[in-house]
Amino acid sequence: MKKIKVAIVGYGNIGRGVHCAVDRNPDMELVQIITRDPDRVKKHVKKIPVYAIGDFKKTADVAILCSGSKDDIFGAASGIKSLKKRIDDPDVHGQGPFFAQYFNTVDSFDTHARIPAYHTAMDHYAARNKHTAIISAGWDPGTFSWERVLADAFIPGARHYTFWGPGVSQGHSDAVRSIQGVLDARQYTLPVDAAIQKVRDCANPRLRACDKHTRLVYVVAHKGADRKKIEKEIKLMPHYFSEYRTRVVFITESEMAKKHSQYPHGGFVVATNQKGIGSRALLEYRCEWGSNAEATGNILTACSRACFRMNQAKNYGAFTMLDLPAAYFSLHSKKKLLVEYM
Prior knowledge:
CATH architecture of the largest domain: 3-Layer(aba) Sandwich
CATH topology of the largest domain: Rossmann fold
Oligomer: single chain
Mean pLDDT: 91
Strand content: 15-25%
Strand order of the largest sheet: 3-2-1-4-5-6-14
Order of helices and strands: EHEHEEHHEHEHEEHEHHEHEHEEHEH
Helix content: 25-40%
Number of strands: 14
Number of helices: 13
Largest sheet: 7 strands, parallel
Radius of gyration: 21 Å
Number of domains: 2
Structural class: alpha/beta
CATH class of the largest domain: Alpha Beta
Low-confidence stretches: 77-85
């Protein structure tokens, strides 16, 4: 079996989750890690070549982008400013468009409001280089996106609701860590029980984002940092906290290590028919992850298989998980899928 060669870009929690997932898939092999801090990563990874972002090798079939959504994947071009070959459009920045010039790519870009603009940029850079890019993959956006679309199709006129948590959001925590003066952070998303009950009772309530969730942020600040300024910047951050009731709690490094070293998460999508339209119907999909990073890593790795297959079929440009056949994600043959999974 010819193995799919995978590169990991960014070696934080998600990158390590992808590394574990690749090792569990017999049709894949990790051939390189690309990072802003190769010396640090080399201390922990002994058998895989580690390169700086400006010094990678074009040896992978798929590059899985594991950097942050806020500034890295599609934002301030963090980590690629010094490269000689630049993205030609000065209005488009980020590791996503940059690496789409060199590899087929998979990423978990999760800033929902910016996905359409990101798709446009990635479609341009991937297609013109005959590459395939699977964007915004994971469990939300990703598998939850599937459930929202299917619920809308299977229950005509349905109203769908998405609840996250209780658990740690990787993307939101990373966004807080990008604030000046923040040493470390964990952001917990907490669903509102009263809102969940109304939905499950098929009351079809109209709920704003802040009606469904609250956000709790634990922050370790650098010594001497302006805590009031940090708290204000967190609460006003668009796409992340500005729409929600957010509580910020400052703690010590030791407290963070002792009480918040795990990254559990989960959530569910619920769809119900509107009153007076047909018989009562409710569809609910739930997931529960002991490790958000490992869950996302597993999904991104399956998506890299689908990405490789799409590229082999000459499907170039940007796609989401909604565009892909379910069989493309699977290691199994069509016969086995028909016999054991249908």
